[in-house]
Design goal:
Elements: H1 3-9, H2 27-37, H3 49-63, H4 71-92, H5 98-109, H6 114-129, H7 138-161, H8 165-174, H9 176-195, H10 197-203, H11 216-225, H12 238-257, H13 259-267
Length: 270
Protein backbone atom coordinates (compact mmCIF):
# COMPACT_ATOMS: atom_id res chain seq x y z
CA UNK A 1 0.00 0.00 0.00
CA UNK A 2 1.35 3.44 -0.89
CA UNK A 3 2.05 5.77 2.08
CA UNK A 4 -0.49 8.34 0.89
CA UNK A 5 -3.17 5.69 0.53
CA UNK A 6 -2.37 4.30 3.94
CA UNK A 7 -2.71 7.75 5.48
CA UNK A 8 -6.14 8.15 3.94
CA UNK A 9 -7.20 4.72 5.13
CA UNK A 10 -6.16 5.49 8.69
CA UNK A 11 -8.18 8.72 8.91
CA UNK A 12 -10.55 8.53 11.92
CA UNK A 13 -14.21 8.27 11.18
CA UNK A 14 -16.75 10.57 12.78
CA UNK A 15 -18.60 8.21 15.08
CA UNK A 16 -20.28 10.89 17.20
CA UNK A 17 -23.06 12.01 14.89
CA UNK A 18 -23.64 11.00 11.29
CA UNK A 19 -25.87 13.24 9.15
CA UNK A 20 -29.17 11.54 8.40
CA UNK A 21 -30.50 11.85 4.86
CA UNK A 22 -34.20 12.10 4.20
CA UNK A 23 -34.48 8.33 3.82
CA UNK A 24 -37.82 6.65 3.29
CA UNK A 25 -40.65 9.21 3.70
CA UNK A 26 -38.30 11.47 5.66
CA UNK A 27 -38.99 9.38 8.76
CA UNK A 28 -35.33 8.67 9.66
CA UNK A 29 -34.55 12.41 9.77
CA UNK A 30 -37.60 13.07 11.94
CA UNK A 31 -36.81 10.24 14.35
CA UNK A 32 -33.19 11.34 14.77
CA UNK A 33 -34.31 14.97 15.30
CA UNK A 34 -36.81 13.85 17.95
CA UNK A 35 -34.15 11.79 19.72
CA UNK A 36 -31.70 14.71 19.65
CA UNK A 37 -34.18 17.21 21.11
CA UNK A 38 -36.63 15.23 23.26
CA UNK A 39 -34.73 16.12 26.45
CA UNK A 40 -35.68 19.78 25.90
CA UNK A 41 -39.31 19.04 26.83
CA UNK A 42 -38.10 18.85 30.45
CA UNK A 43 -35.55 21.68 30.21
CA UNK A 44 -35.98 25.29 31.28
CA UNK A 45 -35.45 26.39 27.70
CA UNK A 46 -37.04 26.62 25.15
CA UNK A 47 -39.84 26.75 27.72
CA UNK A 48 -42.92 25.42 25.92
CA UNK A 49 -43.73 22.18 24.07
CA UNK A 50 -44.62 24.18 20.93
CA UNK A 51 -41.12 25.67 20.81
CA UNK A 52 -39.55 22.23 21.22
CA UNK A 53 -41.71 20.90 18.39
CA UNK A 54 -40.64 23.87 16.26
CA UNK A 55 -36.99 23.08 16.97
CA UNK A 56 -37.57 19.42 16.06
CA UNK A 57 -39.18 20.47 12.76
CA UNK A 58 -36.23 22.73 11.92
CA UNK A 59 -33.75 20.02 12.91
CA UNK A 60 -35.61 17.53 10.71
CA UNK A 61 -35.44 19.90 7.73
CA UNK A 62 -31.69 20.30 8.25
CA UNK A 63 -31.06 16.56 8.59
CA UNK A 64 -33.03 15.91 5.40
CA UNK A 65 -30.35 18.03 3.74
CA UNK A 66 -27.54 16.09 5.41
CA UNK A 67 -26.79 18.96 7.83
CA UNK A 68 -26.32 18.55 11.58
CA UNK A 69 -27.21 21.54 13.72
CA UNK A 70 -24.31 22.44 16.02
CA UNK A 71 -24.85 23.03 19.76
CA UNK A 72 -24.12 26.75 19.26
CA UNK A 73 -26.70 27.10 16.51
CA UNK A 74 -29.27 25.08 18.46
CA UNK A 75 -28.82 27.41 21.43
CA UNK A 76 -29.08 30.43 19.12
CA UNK A 77 -32.43 29.14 17.81
CA UNK A 78 -33.67 28.65 21.37
CA UNK A 79 -32.54 32.15 22.39
CA UNK A 80 -34.22 33.61 19.29
CA UNK A 81 -37.51 31.92 20.21
CA UNK A 82 -37.37 33.53 23.64
CA UNK A 83 -36.39 36.90 22.16
CA UNK A 84 -39.28 36.73 19.69
CA UNK A 85 -41.79 35.98 22.46
CA UNK A 86 -40.52 38.88 24.57
CA UNK A 87 -40.58 41.28 21.63
CA UNK A 88 -44.12 40.17 20.80
CA UNK A 89 -45.25 40.95 24.36
CA UNK A 90 -43.53 44.32 24.22
CA UNK A 91 -45.06 45.34 20.87
CA UNK A 92 -48.52 44.15 21.99
CA UNK A 93 -48.29 46.14 25.21
CA UNK A 94 -48.33 43.03 27.38
CA UNK A 95 -46.39 42.65 30.60
CA UNK A 96 -42.83 41.55 29.91
CA UNK A 97 -39.54 41.31 31.74
CA UNK A 98 -37.16 44.08 30.54
CA UNK A 99 -34.20 42.39 32.23
CA UNK A 100 -34.89 39.11 30.43
CA UNK A 101 -35.27 40.96 27.12
CA UNK A 102 -31.98 42.78 27.68
CA UNK A 103 -30.30 39.47 28.57
CA UNK A 104 -31.31 38.03 25.18
CA UNK A 105 -30.07 41.15 23.38
CA UNK A 106 -26.72 41.00 25.20
CA UNK A 107 -26.39 37.27 24.45
CA UNK A 108 -26.74 37.89 20.73
CA UNK A 109 -24.55 41.00 20.79
CA UNK A 110 -21.71 38.82 22.09
CA UNK A 111 -22.36 36.00 19.63
CA UNK A 112 -21.47 35.38 16.01
CA UNK A 113 -25.18 35.72 15.12
CA UNK A 114 -25.57 39.42 15.92
CA UNK A 115 -25.98 40.55 12.30
CA UNK A 116 -28.82 38.09 11.69
CA UNK A 117 -30.59 39.22 14.87
CA UNK A 118 -30.02 42.89 14.09
CA UNK A 119 -31.71 42.38 10.71
CA UNK A 120 -34.56 40.42 12.30
CA UNK A 121 -35.27 43.01 15.02
CA UNK A 122 -35.15 45.85 12.48
CA UNK A 123 -37.61 44.08 10.18
CA UNK A 124 -39.93 43.10 13.03
CA UNK A 125 -39.93 46.62 14.48
CA UNK A 126 -40.88 48.06 11.09
CA UNK A 127 -43.74 45.59 10.70
CA UNK A 128 -45.08 46.23 14.19
CA UNK A 129 -44.88 50.00 13.88
CA UNK A 130 -46.90 49.87 10.67
CA UNK A 131 -49.36 47.20 11.80
CA UNK A 132 -52.88 47.75 10.49
CA UNK A 133 -55.94 48.50 12.59
CA UNK A 134 -58.45 45.62 12.77
CA UNK A 135 -61.00 47.57 10.74
CA UNK A 136 -58.64 48.09 7.79
CA UNK A 137 -59.83 44.83 6.27
CA UNK A 138 -58.78 41.23 5.91
CA UNK A 139 -56.11 41.75 3.20
CA UNK A 140 -54.15 44.18 5.39
CA UNK A 141 -54.36 41.91 8.42
CA UNK A 142 -53.38 38.86 6.35
CA UNK A 143 -50.35 40.67 4.92
CA UNK A 144 -49.27 41.73 8.42
CA UNK A 145 -49.74 38.28 9.95
CA UNK A 146 -47.92 36.50 7.12
CA UNK A 147 -45.05 39.00 7.10
CA UNK A 148 -44.45 38.75 10.85
CA UNK A 149 -44.57 34.95 10.84
CA UNK A 150 -42.38 34.68 7.74
CA UNK A 151 -39.64 36.87 9.21
CA UNK A 152 -39.93 35.01 12.53
CA UNK A 153 -39.50 31.64 10.83
CA UNK A 154 -36.72 33.04 8.65
CA UNK A 155 -34.59 34.09 11.62
CA UNK A 156 -34.85 30.61 13.15
CA UNK A 157 -33.93 28.97 9.85
CA UNK A 158 -31.09 31.44 9.25
CA UNK A 159 -29.60 30.73 12.68
CA UNK A 160 -29.99 26.97 12.33
CA UNK A 161 -28.64 26.98 8.77
CA UNK A 162 -25.80 29.43 9.42
CA UNK A 163 -26.99 31.69 6.59
CA UNK A 164 -28.30 35.23 6.27
CA UNK A 165 -31.92 36.35 6.51
CA UNK A 166 -32.25 36.96 2.76
CA UNK A 167 -31.19 33.40 1.91
CA UNK A 168 -33.44 31.98 4.63
CA UNK A 169 -36.49 33.85 3.31
CA UNK A 170 -35.73 32.76 -0.25
CA UNK A 171 -35.49 29.11 0.81
CA UNK A 172 -38.78 29.34 2.75
CA UNK A 173 -40.41 30.68 -0.40
CA UNK A 174 -38.95 28.11 -2.79
CA UNK A 175 -38.38 24.84 -0.96
CA UNK A 176 -41.36 22.53 -0.47
CA UNK A 177 -40.64 21.34 3.07
CA UNK A 178 -40.09 24.88 4.35
CA UNK A 179 -43.29 26.07 2.66
CA UNK A 180 -45.13 23.29 4.48
CA UNK A 181 -43.52 24.38 7.73
CA UNK A 182 -44.66 27.96 7.10
CA UNK A 183 -48.22 26.73 6.48
CA UNK A 184 -48.13 24.89 9.82
CA UNK A 185 -46.95 28.10 11.49
CA UNK A 186 -49.87 30.00 9.98
CA UNK A 187 -52.33 27.34 11.19
CA UNK A 188 -51.00 27.79 14.73
CA UNK A 189 -51.41 31.56 14.30
CA UNK A 190 -55.06 31.00 13.41
CA UNK A 191 -55.47 28.86 16.53
CA UNK A 192 -53.91 31.58 18.69
CA UNK A 193 -56.10 34.29 17.17
CA UNK A 194 -59.31 32.27 17.66
CA UNK A 195 -58.44 31.58 21.28
CA UNK A 196 -57.60 35.26 21.97
CA UNK A 197 -60.43 36.87 19.98
CA UNK A 198 -62.01 38.64 22.98
CA UNK A 199 -58.75 40.02 24.31
CA UNK A 200 -57.61 41.16 20.87
CA UNK A 201 -60.88 43.02 20.20
CA UNK A 202 -60.77 44.66 23.61
CA UNK A 203 -57.20 45.87 23.04
CA UNK A 204 -57.69 46.73 19.35
CA UNK A 205 -55.07 44.31 18.07
CA UNK A 206 -55.18 43.06 14.46
CA UNK A 207 -55.83 39.34 14.15
CA UNK A 208 -57.50 36.87 11.86
CA UNK A 209 -60.45 36.55 14.25
CA UNK A 210 -60.84 40.24 15.10
CA UNK A 211 -62.53 42.54 12.61
CA UNK A 212 -65.88 43.62 11.18
CA UNK A 213 -65.56 41.22 8.21
CA UNK A 214 -64.73 38.13 10.26
CA UNK A 215 -67.08 35.15 10.01
CA UNK A 216 -66.75 31.47 10.72
CA UNK A 217 -66.75 30.90 6.95
CA UNK A 218 -63.91 33.41 6.41
CA UNK A 219 -61.81 31.68 9.07
CA UNK A 220 -62.47 28.29 7.48
CA UNK A 221 -61.36 29.80 4.20
CA UNK A 222 -58.05 30.77 5.80
CA UNK A 223 -57.62 27.24 7.12
CA UNK A 224 -58.05 25.99 3.55
CA UNK A 225 -55.65 28.63 2.20
CA UNK A 226 -52.92 27.45 4.58
CA UNK A 227 -53.59 23.77 3.89
CA UNK A 228 -52.34 21.44 1.17
CA UNK A 229 -55.29 20.06 -0.84
CA UNK A 230 -53.15 17.44 -2.57
CA UNK A 231 -53.33 13.85 -1.32
CA UNK A 232 -50.51 12.80 0.96
CA UNK A 233 -47.87 11.01 -1.07
CA UNK A 234 -45.14 8.70 0.13
CA UNK A 235 -42.24 11.07 -0.43
CA UNK A 236 -39.65 12.93 1.63
CA UNK A 237 -42.22 15.46 2.91
CA UNK A 238 -44.62 12.79 4.16
CA UNK A 239 -44.15 13.68 7.86
CA UNK A 240 -44.70 17.40 7.33
CA UNK A 241 -47.78 16.82 5.16
CA UNK A 242 -49.29 14.58 7.82
CA UNK A 243 -48.49 17.20 10.49
CA UNK A 244 -50.14 19.91 8.39
CA UNK A 245 -53.28 17.79 7.91
CA UNK A 246 -53.51 17.14 11.66
CA UNK A 247 -52.99 20.80 12.64
CA UNK A 248 -55.49 22.02 10.02
CA UNK A 249 -58.10 19.54 11.31
CA UNK A 250 -57.50 20.83 14.82
CA UNK A 251 -57.89 24.44 13.64
CA UNK A 252 -61.22 23.64 11.96
CA UNK A 253 -62.44 21.88 15.11
CA UNK A 254 -61.49 24.86 17.29
CA UNK A 255 -63.28 27.29 14.96
CA UNK A 256 -66.41 25.14 15.17
CA UNK A 257 -66.21 25.02 18.96
CA UNK A 258 -65.63 28.78 19.23
CA UNK A 259 -68.13 29.75 16.51
CA UNK A 260 -70.51 31.43 18.96
CA UNK A 261 -67.74 33.58 20.47
CA UNK A 262 -66.45 34.48 17.00
CA UNK A 263 -69.93 35.55 15.86
CA UNK A 264 -70.54 37.57 19.04
CA UNK A 265 -67.26 39.45 18.65
CA UNK A 266 -68.02 40.17 15.00
CA UNK A 267 -71.43 41.61 15.93
CA UNK A 268 -69.72 43.91 18.43
CA UNK A 269 -68.23 45.78 15.46
CA UNK A 270 -71.72 46.68 14.15
Amino acid sequence: MKPATAAVARQPQNRIEIPAGHGWLGIPSALVAIAANVRLFAARQPGTPLRVLSLIAIDTALRSRGIIITPDRRQAVIEAMELGAQLNDRFDGDAHNPQALRARVVWFARSAHREVIRCYVKRLRRLERTRPDPDQGAPAVTHYRESVNRVSLAVLWALARGKGMAIAEMEIEREADLRLLFQIVMQTQLIDDVLDVRQDRRRGLPSYANGPEVTVASLCGLVAAYSDPRPIRLNRNFCLRVALKVVAAGTRALIAIRSAAISNEARAWC
